[in-house]
Amino acid sequence: MNLVVLTGAGISAESGLATFRDLGGIWSQVRLEEVATPEAFAADPARVQGFYNARRAQLFRVAPNPAHLALARLDALWTRGDFLLVTQNVDDLHERAGARRLLHMHGELRRARCLACGEDHPWLEDIAPHSACPGCGAAGRLRPHVVWFGEMPLHMARIQEALAGCDLFVSIGTSGRVWPAAGFVAELRGRARTLEINLEPSEGASLFDETRHGPASRLVPAWVEEMLTA
Ligand code: OAD
Q1: pLDDT band at 186 (very low <50, low <70, confident <90, very high)
Q2: How many angstroms separate the CA atoms of 147 and 68, rounded?
Q3: What angle do CA 90, 91, 94 make, to 5 degrees?
Q4: Which residues have C-beta atoms less than 6 Å from ligand 1?
Q5: Separation between Cα atoms, residue 156 and residue 143, nearest integer Å
Q6: What single string gives the DSSP state of each residue in 12-24?
C-alpha cells in the first residue's frame, strides 16, 4: 500500500508555531500581500526579510510534537509500499523528528536562495542586507527559500508521481484553502482512499472518504499505530 501524507500548519500548532488562518493566526496579524509575494519583496525587502528572520529565529525555541514523531516512525517502519511525506510547512520539525522521505512544497525557512546564482543553501541565522551567498559569494542577493503567492510550489513533478501511484492519501492539519495542495483530494477521488485528520472540518472535508477531527498530537500517533499494527 503506497502512502502519501500531506501536512500543513496545524501539525506544528502544538509545538507553538502559529497557523495562518485560525483565529489569531499569522494572516490575521500581517497582510500576506505585504510579506508573502514577490511584489512585496521588490517593494520592501527589509520588511519581508524581517518577517522571515523572525520566523526562522523562532525555530530555535520549538521542538517536534508527538504528531511529527509518529510520522517519522511511520516513515522509518513502513515497508508495505512506498511512503512520501509532503509538507506545506516551512519549519523543519518533520526532519528534526527524523522524517527522511520528505518534500517541502512551500520551501524551507532554514535555507536561503541566491538571486545571483539561483542556488539554495542551509541558512540558520538572519538574512542581513549584505549577507553573502555561500556558493557564489554575491553579497545582498539572498532571499528566503520559501514559495510566495504567485510562485510555483517546489517538487511538483515528484509529488504528482507519488499521488498517481498512491493507495492512501492522508491530509493533516491543513485548511485546504491553498492550491495546488487543496486540490490533491479531488484529484484522487475514485483512485485512492483519502483521510483527513484536522482540528476541525477543513474547506474540502466532504471530499474525503474518512475524517477524524481533533488535535494532531493525539490523532496522528493513533492513526500511525493502526497502520503499523494492521
Ligand atoms: P492554515 O492556517 O490555513 O490551516 C491550518 C489548519 O490546521 C486549520 O484547518 C486548523 O483547524 C488546523 N489545526 C490547528 N491546530 C491544529 C491541531 N493542533 N491539530 C490538527 N489540526 C490543527 O494552514 P495551511 O493549511 O498549512 O503558504 O496553509 C497553507 C499555506 O497557506 C501555508 O503553507 C502558507 C499559507 O499562506 C505560503 O506561505 C505559501
Answers
A1: very high
A2: 22
A3: 110
A4: 8-10, 13-14, 19-22, 25, 36, 88, 106, 147, 173-175, 177-178, 198-200, 202, 215-216
A5: 21
A6: HHTTT---SSSTT
Q: In what order do the strands lie in the sheet with 3-7?
A: 102-104, 83-87, 3-7, 168-172, 193-198, 210-213
In DSSP notation, 58-76 reads HGGG----HHHHHHHHHHH
Find residue 146's DSSP bridge partners: 107
The pLDDT tens digits of the residues spanning 190-199 come to: 999 999 999 9
For the chain, what's the residue count?
Answer: 230
DSSP bridge partners of 162? none
- Note the helical H segments in the chain: 10-13, 26-29, 32-35, 38-43, 45-58, 66-77, 93-97, 156-164, 184-187, 216-229
Place of cell 521588490: 42
Indicate the DSSP class of residue 139.
Answer: B
Please state whether the predicted TM-score (pTM) of the whole model is above 0.70.
Answer: yes
Cell triple for 117? 546564482
Q: Which set of grid coordinates corresponds to residue 6? A: 500531506
Active-site residue among 68, 94, 104, 106? 106
